[in-house]
TrEMBL record, chain B:
<protein>
    <recommendedName>
        <fullName>Cell division protein FtsX</fullName>
    </recommendedName>
</protein>
<dbReference type="Pfam" id="PF18075">
    <property type="entry name" value="FtsX_ECD"/>
</dbReference>
<feature type="transmembrane region" description="Helical">
    <location>
        <begin position="184"/>
        <end position="209"/>
    </location>
</feature>
<feature type="transmembrane region" description="Helical">
    <location>
        <begin position="280"/>
        <end position="300"/>
    </location>
</feature>
<dbReference type="GO" id="GO:0051301">
    <property type="term" value="P:cell division"/>
</dbReference>
<keyword id="KW-1133">Transmembrane helix</keyword>
<comment type="similarity">
    <text>Belongs to the ABC-4 integral membrane protein family. FtsX subfamily.</text>
</comment>
<feature type="transmembrane region" description="Helical">
    <location>
        <begin position="230"/>
        <end position="250"/>
    </location>
</feature>
<feature type="transmembrane region" description="Helical">
    <location>
        <begin position="21"/>
        <end position="48"/>
    </location>
</feature>
<keyword id="KW-0132">Cell division</keyword>
<dbReference type="Pfam" id="PF02687">
    <property type="entry name" value="FtsX"/>
</dbReference>
<keyword id="KW-0812">Transmembrane</keyword>
<keyword id="KW-0472">Membrane</keyword>
<feature type="domain" description="ABC3 transporter permease C-terminal">
    <location>
        <begin position="185"/>
        <end position="305"/>
    </location>
</feature>
<dbReference type="InterPro" id="IPR003838">
    <property type="entry name" value="ABC3_permease_C"/>
</dbReference>
<dbReference type="InterPro" id="IPR004513">
    <property type="entry name" value="FtsX"/>
</dbReference>
<dbReference type="GO" id="GO:0005886">
    <property type="term" value="C:plasma membrane"/>
</dbReference>
Amino acid sequence: MIYFGNVSKYYPDGTKALDGVTLSISDGEFVSIVGHSGAGKTTLVKLLLGEDHPTEGSVSFDSVNLAKIKAKDIPSHRRRIGVIFQDFRLLPNKTAYENVAFAMEVAGRPDDEVASDVPHVLELVNLGEKMWNFPKELSGGERQRVAIARAIVNQPDLIIADEPTGNLDPINTYEIVQILKKINDLGTTVILTTHNKGVIDNLGRRVITMDSGRVVRDDVKGRYIL
Amino acid sequence: MTWTNTKRIIKAGFMSFWRSGVVSISAILMMTIALLMIGTTILTSAYLQSTLGDIEKKVDVNVYLDVSATENDVLALKQSLENLPEVKEVTYTSKEDNKAAFIELHKDDELLVRVFDELDDNPLRPILKISAKDPSQYGAIASFLEHDTTLSSGGASIINKVTYKKDIIDRLIKILAGARKVGFSVAVALVLISIFITLNTLRLVIYISREEISVMQLVGANSKYIRGPFVIEGVIYGVVSSLLTLALFYPLTSWVRNVTGNFYGGIDLFKYYVDNFGQIFIIIMGSGITLGVISSLLAIRRYLKQ
């Protein structure tokens, strides 16, 4: 379902972010991408989101060719993907409820669905009590759970978690990874990029290791080896 | 754009306005300053127009006619003057009218009135007061009066004296033209500055929200959906600051009236403001909303490029 075919990405300053990457990810997989900073993990994520285009090669998501996607088709493409970031990226002027509802509203879902689904999803991530709090009133772990709720509320085909635990303590990290596993168990493809050795070693799922823009290992039941 | 989306965009605009607190207040204050400048432009140009108009009205040519001139002669002269294209109006004051005015003016001076009454004949001359359409045309009218012999009855001119102060009128024409030019340039400058202030204020407001805009894009919001609430906020800024501006002009014009009341008898700005409130309301509110919407659209454009 996701395919990178000999993808390279060069930036104008001469940096080689990706260098001939070929890989495919099937539906329902839980794939971790590991590597040092600058290994190309985030570039991979950006290409999948249509935030950036490859210099060479092709990137496809189902039938969509992301190397040639038009600006006007990007919003609808992004609604098929739930994204979770290290810095949460919540809307600061909206409550937890409104942040999640926003994702449904942009997808054009009707009011009654929004009213019934948002509390439900926030309950799932254990934030039922704090639905009406603003992000600044929540802890790091709670904010990340709001971000997860926002990512899953539209039942996307793919969840991308880009260093989701980078700002969290071990207990919150454990909780977030458990939630991601649960999402994957329900059938959603998950791509996780991380630096956290403990997380990878406990998952026991496929691990893609990157270095200097190249894929250097791809193990079905991988461990964090760098 | 469905009704649900429109409703959501309007609601999001109001909510963001309310929750942005200090940012919204500063945007409103800046826009109020801009609108005050536009309002001041309207009021000062009205004041200038009326004052210059008043001065123009005070310029005229008085034709003093011979005491012997008959009513018919005078009316014939009046008629031919009125036929001139340069002439706006000719007012005729007869000997009797002049006498009545003289007696009225000096009614407390019994001696003078009695002397006047005892005269067999009325020594006051009939007067024709000529107003031109434009002050620069007085020269032409004056030379017509001097040279045109058709005005005389029976060969002798009935005109005794023409008061026409060429230097003063010429200087006045220059001053009036200069004042209008300066007034217009100041108005254009003030309006440009106010557009600039609003544009930059909203640019800052949207700059503060740039992270939010990128988050909205990541969640899959299309450009219209992101732009909408900012445009609504622009409208709210416009409406609130217009109301504030209109409210401020009330005490301001009243204060100006009190300060300048005995200084020059031009128009009463307070009265002008109250009498023309409808028009001024539409201009200020219209400028406020237009400035708000256009500035928002221009400011957000660069953040919506994918």
